[in-house]
Specification:
0% strand; 164 residues; 5 helices; mainly alpha; 2 domains; elongated
């Protein structure tokens, strides 16, 4: 899946973009649902690893190097320090990342729909109609002043010639 490419909008193909929008939303909605499921499964695995290690610690704390009184804090810290838990947690974080990206893409595709609506509105208001170059007011003012100044100069020159 190419997230960046799929959320782009071609302003010259608004009709095609509108036709593609529902399929795009469905595609990424399904993808997000898949990541929801994967995240739930990975969380369940993580909890199971935690429960198994907890049970092992309670049954034989000496195998985990625990020589002091077994408290909930000691058990929790031992679980968190175990390689098996660290590996399960790492997998959980990877799936959680993918899930968060999938949520962001669904949000972006939804935002794409809103932008399509805005572009269509602009199109209806002739925003995209032919090229239009805005006037440079300063340049227009200067041109007008030069024209007036040139007219005054001609008048002055004619008067001076007549007086001679």
């Amino acid at each position: 899946m190419n997230y960046e490419k799929d959320v782009e909008i071609s302003p010259t193909d608004l009709d095609i973009e509108c036709l593609d929008q529902p399929a795009l939303m469905l595609k990424y909605g399904k993808h997000k649902a898949g990541t929801d499921k994967a995240l739930a499964l990975e969380k369940e695995k993580l909890d199971l690893v935690r429960a198994e290690i907890d049970k092992q610690i309670r049954e034989s704390p000496e195998e985990f190097g625990i020589t002091t009184k077994i408290t909930e804090t000691v058990i929790t810290n031992t679980i968190l320090a175990s390689d098996e838990y660290k590996e399960a947690y790492k997998k959980y974080l990877e799936v959680n990342y993918e899930h968060n990206v999938a949520k962001s893409v669904v949000d972006a595709v939804s935002q794409r729909k809103d932008m399509l609506e805005a572009l269509i509105k602009l199109h209806g208001q002739q925003y995209f109609a032919g090229p239009s170059v805005p006037r440079d007011i300063e340049q227009e003012r200067e041109r007008k002043e030069n024209k007036v100044d040139a007219g005054i100069g001609k008048t002055f020159t004619r008067r001076t010639r007549r007086e001679k």
